[in-house]
Structure formats: structure tokens, C-alpha cells
Amino acid sequence: MHAIDDVAPGAVAAPDFRALFERLPSPYMILDRELRYVEANAVYCEILEREREDLIGRNIFDAFPDNGESGRRLRASFERVLATGQPDSLPLIPYPIERPASRGGGFEMRYWSAVHVPLVSADGCTDFIVQNTVDVTELQRLKEMAYGPGGRSAPAPGETDLFQRAQEAEALNQTLMQESQGLRDLFMQAPGFMAVLTGEDLTFALVNNAYQQLIGHRKVIGLPIDSALPEVRAQGFVTLLEQVMRTREPHVGQATSVRLQRAPGAPLEERFVDFVFQPIVAPSGEAWGVFVEGSDVTSRVLAERQQKLLVDELNHRVKNTLATVQAIAAQTLRSADDLETFRIAFESRLMALSATHDLLTATSWRSAKLRDVLGVEFKPYGPERYRLQGPDVALSPAEALALGLLFHELATNAAKYGALSTSAGCIEVDWAVGAKSLELSWRERGGPTVAPPQRRGFGSRLIERSLKGALGGEAVLDFSPEGLVCRINLPLSEAH
Tens digit of pLDDT for each residue in 21-30? Predict the structure, then answer.
């Protein structure tokens, strides 16, 4: 359809008013006397998310039902136009619009400014009503944030001329965009989470990106908090919000636990937040909403917990290590003939303890491999002097320290009196893992003939007693003439 019809040369061109109506940048529709749709332009259909074919011929109150105050006001305005033949304005009217199923269905409250203009026939009768509407919902929400519900001021009076109102609405939108865009960007992109809840039912009016991320990007705008985030009622947060509304006093929370369903059907996920519930108070002194602001501090809380756990564990390990060193010193002193003998034996045992500590430090004190614990004791003698046979076994720190000292005593004894004291001797270590226990055999071959000792020194006592107590294990020495044999049984921790 052409905007200007073809005309004879010299004739005055007439606009194509149907094309003009369709291309107007503001929403327009036309009703007959029965309030049935006769026409609606593209912008009107786009804003209301309806197809033109779904509207033509339908009564407006069938297409957009409202039996409340807003519906009565709208109907009364139409009736005044039909009765008087004069334009009528509704500067501000809240009216719910049904959302399509693709957007989740239900109704969404919108705010409108409307003018109704009669189309009068030659006999003076009003045959049609032209409606021009401006959706001022975003402007209204910003006004409510700034001034409270009492700030619902209507547009300036006198905006009855159709094209003048369209121009004023466009100018208002441009001004609003220029003045508020920076503030809105700051609000939406702020690193802390923010939300505005309004009314007695605490309905979400605004949320920023960080808040959406916290709650799992759920659609909450226009929904009461009990519907939008049903899991927080039982956790006491709704009660706190109601208290802030009632007392008009802010509430501050620090590292507070909140459990949120951050994905559909998923279990509740615990997060930790620092937050402020700040009442929004109208000039009358009444609170009409709550401003929520805060930060997700889950990473910080978990790090602090881990740090405390590590400090507690370090304190425990230091005490245990000091107790072990004290016992080694006392027992070595009792069995030493002089200070030099004591020094050599004591330093040797401390180095064994240190070597096992190094293995555990490499894994942040989580575990150490049995093969590595044996390897550090055999390292000074060369790989041809020992044979290790068995599966990989991860030892807990307590198990690794106990076995490290035990293997050190066995290796030291072998170097002095056993298989490692001759060039042909060697040591075979075999192990297997049974039902939650370690079975290990230390067997010396090719060394001097072995005879049972006349007295038990500290080394023998340490070997036989080191696995008892908290570890619940056992080490048995067999002084066979062919070579010393040590059989070890050690229950393994749940980590295995």
C-alpha cells in the first residue's frame, strides 16, 4: 500500500490514512459503540503481545478482562466519550495484561496513560472511539523507588491533543533515557546483589544481575517473595523483611547462611551472604518497600573454615610431633652409653621423622605412599640391596609417620647387625591389602647369622609398640638365624 495514492497531474495529493495509522510510532486502536475492536496498529499489537486477527471483532473487556477498579475506570471513560462526543483522558491507570504461554502465562501489571477521542458521524453521533496509550510502567517503577507509592502522579493535564501527546511522550522517554540510563546501568551491573521489594506481600519490583546470579536466574519480577523464592520463608528471611517493613528499622546480616534452589529440581544449595535490609519510607512515614543489598561471601566463608581446619590440624600435628620427639629423646637417652652415641642415634631418628614429614608435605598432609615411605629409608644403600613387592597403598599421616619410624629402626638395625652390614645381603619387603588392613613382611637375607638379643633396646621396643594404641596395629619380630623377619599388621583408615 502506498502512502500517497496516484493522482492526476496538478491535483493535490491525499495521504493514505490507513498506511499512516499503521505506521504511527505510538499505540493506537479503534473501538465501535459496542466497544469491539475495529482496528489496531502494529505498535499496539506489539506492546500487548497480541495478533491483530485475535482482536478484531472482540469486545475489549473480553480480550483484556478486569472487574476491578481499573476496569470500571476504563469503561466509564469510554461511556463518557460516547455520551458527550468529547475526548476523555486517563492520565494514569494500572491495568493487568495477560502474558502469552511462551513467557510463562499469568498476568503482568502495567501502567498506562490513555486518551480516548471520538470519531463523530455527519449526524453528530459518536460512531467510533480512537484510543492512544503510552506504557509508562518503567517510569512509574522509577517514581515509586524515588518517592514511594504516593509518587504515582499522573502526566500533566491538557495532554488531549493526539499528536501533541505523542510528541510529549517521545520527549519524556528521551529525557528519561538520558537521565536514568547511567543509574540503571550502575544498578544492574553493580558487583553486589540488589533488589527492591514493595507492598505488604513484598513483591519484586527490581533485581540486578548479581541478584539474578545468586538465585539461579529465576524470573521474579512482579511476584511476591513467597511465590518467587518459596524456600526462604522457613529460613526466617521473610519474617525479617516483614519486621523491617513494620519497624522501619534496617537489618544487617553477616556471613549468613541461606539455602537456595539455584536450578529447577535441584537440591537446595547453601550460600553465605553479607546483606542489609533497608526500609524504603514514604514522606508520610510509612514503609512501602525494602531495598535489599549485599554480597555473596561464600568463597570467603569456606576459605576461613578451611584455614581454621588447617590451623587446628597443624596445632594437633605439632603437639603430636613434639610428643614423638620427646619420647624418642627420652628412650634414646636411656639406651645410650654416652652423649656421642645419644647424639648420633637421636639425630638419625629425627632425620627419619623429617623424611616422612617431607613426603606428607608434598601432598599437603593428605597421605603418603607406602612404597615412598620405604624408599626414603633404603635410599642410602642403593637399589640392589632391597626388593619391594606389593600394590600401591596410600597411608594416612599418622600411619605414614609410625611406619616411617619403624622402617628406620629396621634399616638401621640391618645396617649395623643384619643384611645391610655385608656386601651380599639384601632385604625383601612384601605386602598385601586385605579386608581394610595391611599385611607386610620385612625379611633379611644374606647377612650374618642372627641370634636373639640379650636385652631389648629402644629400637626393638619402638618397632613392637609403635603401631599399637590409636592405630590398633601390631609388629612382631622373629630373630630367625637366616635373617631377621618382621611381620606387620595395620588396620587402614577409611580413606583407603
Answer: 888 888 899 9
